[in-house]
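During the first year of the project, the team set up a workflow for recording each protein of interest as an amino acid sequence followed immediately by a discrete structure-token representation. This format lets reviewers and collaborators read both layers of information side by side without switching files. As required by the reporting guidelines, we include two representative entries from the current panel. The first entry is reproduced here exactly as it appears in our internal archive.
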Amino acid sequence: MFLDFRSFMREVVALLAVIKEIVVLLLCALVVLTMILAAVEDLSFRDAIYFAAITGLTIGFGDITPSTPMGRLVVILIGLLGIVFTGIVVALVNRALAYAAAEKRRRLGQPPPVSRILSRDD
């Protein structure tokens, strides 16, 4: 069963509307930490954005490394925020796929999967 991309994206947008404050707060925190990193480590803002993105996504090429204790602390915070942000994105996509699949099953008149029938949540 293939999902309709529009239905999936509709669910993503609806879920983003619910958690938009959290996403905006995380992105603002990452921008502030990136500016601090640029100042503390004497990096251009462009290099600091690159470094924060590579660190936040837990890739870590190693081409730029923090050299000050404050820079190391900021990088640790960027890494932690990146992990949290990645987890939120994965959870959002997972939930949107589940909602889109359930919507498609309802449209086709198919029963819910066995796991939903056996669950006691409803």
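The second entry, processed by the same pipeline in the following quarter, appears below.
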Amino acid sequence: MSRTRDARAGGLRACPHRCLRRVPRRSLATRRTAAALGVVLASACASSGSVDQTVQLPEPPAAITAEAVRAEQATRLTEAARLVFAWRAQEPDFRGEGTGVARIEPPAKARLDLFLDNGEVAAIAALVGDELRIPAELPSELVPPPALFWAALGVFRPGDDATLVAGREDNGTMELEYRLPTAGGVRFRLRGHAVADAMVLDGGAVVQRVLATEPGPGSDYPAEATYRNLRDYRELRLRLETFEHVDSFPSNIWNPGLRGSRRDPASRGGRL
């Protein structure tokens, strides 16, 4: 049994987000390293995907609207599954890595658990439809908003209340932009029906995004997904290691809380 599983078997320990391998501030060299990391992250966030933030998409023709509906249908969840992945997070002053577990179940339920290498909990979140549920005891900085959360799992789901306002197709790549009830919107880039890029927009600028690769052999899920918060220079990388289809999960996991997670039958014995 791995160190992480041993720690889980003894009960989940909450790790405040700031325990993610703090970069000491005492030395000038370290401060320069942190500053350099911020510049690297800013550059990476700004350049990835080559999105022209100033280009406005045209109003979607009927064919694009119909194709968007087909993409939602093609990527919706059809069976429960458990995904295990390696994750790595970094910010200008903090970094951490470990093992993560995602549990998904139709029609639209997902739960994400991130553990540090020592077994401490870095993040827990559940997504039911478009409702994001995060325990008050745990940080939310590493968790993408709903549409991007789904995109990281390979699901194209703009949201029940999202309205398609623009779109185009070019050489097999479709770009779609949706208006959300809240301020701003979300833009997707799809190749075929697979989500390659999802972006949260604010005033025409990309402020958050998820980049997803194609699934690996025999998989329906992206081999890798990267979430970036461009304003905060925050990045979370997920690399899928294994997945398995299951019958179902206990219903209580979709309403996570730190104490509830400890009682979660699926987490006993060190296995989520």
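For the second entry, the following points were noted during internal review. Helices lie at 3-9, 28-47, 62-75, 146-152, 258-263. Residues 3-270 form a domain with the outer membrane lipoprotein receptor (LolB), chain A fold (CATH 2.50.20.10). Both points are flagged for discussion at the upcoming steering committee meeting.
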